[in-house]
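Input.
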Amino acid sequence: MESLWKLVYLLEPAPVTLITTAVAVTFASAFRALNYGKEMERNRDLSEASITLDRSQALMIPVMSSFSLLLMFYLFSSVSQLLTAFTAVASASSLYFCLSPYVAYLKSQFGLADPFVSRCCSKSFTRIQGLLLISCSVVVAAWLVSGHWILNNLLGISICIAFVSHVRLPNIKICAMLLLCLFVYDIFWVFFSERFFGANVMVSVATQQASNPVHTVANSLSLPGLQLITKKLELPVKIVFPRNLLGGVVPGESATDFMMLGLGDMGNLLPYFCRSSEN
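Output.
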């Protein structure tokens, strides 16, 4: 009875917000993926950017994820700045992908003129697309400077939606097989990895902070305002909310404690949901 009573903490603001956000992201990702699938049917160039997994590729996802997890567990400090730079690029492109349909809708609703202004990588860019790309880059730059958890969540959600939209599964059988493999993957790395590696690999990787390359460059150049740039960053591979979301600190806990949920925990059911909705 006492253990059940402890579940009351789920009714506190931070857990409720975390759960609500996770559910909202799940449905938003599925909705965007289905709409993007319809766009790919009309535009062959978009279909070339997506990846349809066969059985062997689906089986390799947990294997490669395990390898990446171990790599970050042992070598995170060595590759953290490179990982941060790669994540920044992926975050900007993902945020652009998520916002572009809404920008296109507003453009059509208000009849805005949108001439082509340049070409990049054999593709033409309109003026509004260029402004959107700049805006997304500014958001990523703000995250690199401040490391704020709200920006971290925004970029993490964008990456989740973009990943689900671009990775396609051809049938229910492969979906079920992938979900089973990911279930075993999660169970092992969360609950049993400590027996083999001396520490909880999943939690250790998820809670590590990466070195901020912006701070490193600013420090080497002795740029003004260095104290405003965060030294460490939470990578947007999870959504986080402070336990004292409304300002009250829980007794015995630090004001900087966060609740977190990995993007993979939200994404595991998305392939099946998307595929089932298509059928």
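The mean pLDDT is 79.
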